[in-house]
Design a protein that fits this description.
Elements lengths: L1 H33 L3 H18 L2 E2 L3 H15 L9 E5 L6 E4 L3 E5 L9 H16 L2 H9 L4 H8 L6 H12 L5 H18 L4 H16 L14 H14 L15 E8 L2 E8 L2 E9 L2 H17 L9 E6 L2 E6 L2 E7 L10 H22 L3
Helix pairs in contact: 3-4, 4-8, 4-9, 5-7, 8-10, 9-10
């Protein structure tokens, strides 16, 4: 009889504990779901943006502003954060910088436009900031740095007299991009997915990060603004490159930058033409010739071939000259760039192999100078 009563007590105890655990789990789950309040985040964002825009002038009615909004809205539509309204603005703030605050507000500095080299790079920066908003990183980092949960932080900051300490932490996190390694990596990964989904080349995000790394290496005393992130930019470059490789995305850096830019000039001077090809500011070919349509088109084709086959990962030995009697050919790898006959270079009193050997040396110099400043 006692055993039966004892067994009933045990069963009742187990049932009670089970009910309590289910209740606690339910409360915990509901608390987790309720941790995101987009309306309050946007109220906070409006409040913070008013303070920011009192301190810094907002740039309006510029070509850059139209571009920013166009790219930003395209990325925002892919963010799948229903109920979040995004705002993209340019600030007159010294130095290249970008940051986001809760509530969908994303700011870039006017100076940033002198630093980026393509729409793809700008898209990469904006996608990264949108990712911080998607994952609520600013408030999560503030939570990690304080004793409050997310909803309490929102409540504290939305009062008429917000907690100065909490507000200071949030401001530091957003304006100086002081996120943890975990949050930065999460934002980088999400940014790449957003870029792929919206048709922007994610290599632009990599090339931008690589230049940040080069800037840190050569100018460590500069206030880095957007560059003050955790993990170190070198590590970010490494894992972003790995992500792109895993996703089988070709890393063609010249597609998203002005790197090793090829330009051509054809000048008519009285009785002869001069064809000039540049890589960046380095003149790699300067060939004068009497009126000859064949050489004219050879120079145009050489420029196109250079643009097609030139890569920043080229090794000097891959740029070579093949000589076969009076005919010489400049190659990059196994790809023909230009072939000249000695008869086509007599106007400048040089052999074709001399002209193309000089061109070879200058291409190598252009590659060397590039890698000197951007050692990836």
């Amino acid at each position: 009889m006692k055993k039966i009563r004892y067994k009933k007590l045990i069963n009742k105890f187990v049932f009670t504990i089970t009910c309590i655990l289910i209740l606690l789990f339910s409360m915990s789950f509901n608390s987790f779901v309720a941790e995101r309040d987009l309306d309050k985040e946007q109220q906070l964002g409006k409040k913070l943006s008013n303070d920011i825009e009192k301190k810094y002038e907002v740039v309006k009615n510029s070509v850059q502003n139209s571009l920013l909004i166009e790219i930003g809205n395209k990325l925002a539509r892919a963010s799948d954060l229903d109920g979040m309204n995004y705002h993209f603005k340019i600030l007159k703030m010294e130095g290249p910088n970008a940051f986001s605050i809760p509530g969908g507000y994303i700011y870039v500095t006017y100076d940033l436009f002198d630093y980026i080299q393509s729409d793809d790079e700008l898209a990469g920066i904006l996608a990264h900031e949108i990712a911080h908003i998607i994952h609520n990183h600013a408030l999560k980092q503030t939570r990690d740095n304080t004793k409050y949960n997310l909803l309490t932080i929102l409540a504290v900051l939305l009062t008429r007299e917000p907690d100065v300490g909490v507000l200071g932490k949030l401001t530091t996190i957003t304006l100086l991009n002081q996120y943890s390694r975990q949050y930065e990596e999460e934002a980088d990964l999400t940014a790449i997915d957003l870029l792929i989904e919206t048709g922007y080349n994610p290599v632009g995000f990599l090339t931008f990060l690589e230049r940040l790394y080069a800037r840190e290496m050569f100018r460590p005393e500069v206030d880095l603004g957007i560059f003050q992130t955790h993990p170190e930019t070198k590590d970010r470059v490494s894992y972003v490159k790995n992500i792109l490789t895993e996703k089988e995305i070709e890393i063609d850096r010249r597609a998203t930058t002005d790197y090793l830019k090829v330009n051509t000039k054809l000048i008519l001077e009285r009785s002869f033409w001069t064809g000039i090809i540049y890589i960046d500011d380095i003149m790699i070919l300067n060939l004068s010739f009497s009126e000859n349509e064949g050489i004219y088109y050879k120079i145009l084709d050489a420029s196109n071939n250079l643009d097609k086959y030139l890569a920043i990962t080229l090794d000097p030995y891959e740029v070579k000259v093949s000589v076969n009697g009076p005919i010489s050919t400049l190659l990059i790898g196994n790809n023909e760039i230009i072939t000249l006959d000695d008869s086509e270079t007599t106007f400048i009193n040089k052999l074709s192999r001399e002209v193309l050997s000089e061109m070879q040396d200058k291409i190598r110099r252009a590659l060397w100078e590039f890698k000197l400043h951007l050692p990836f």
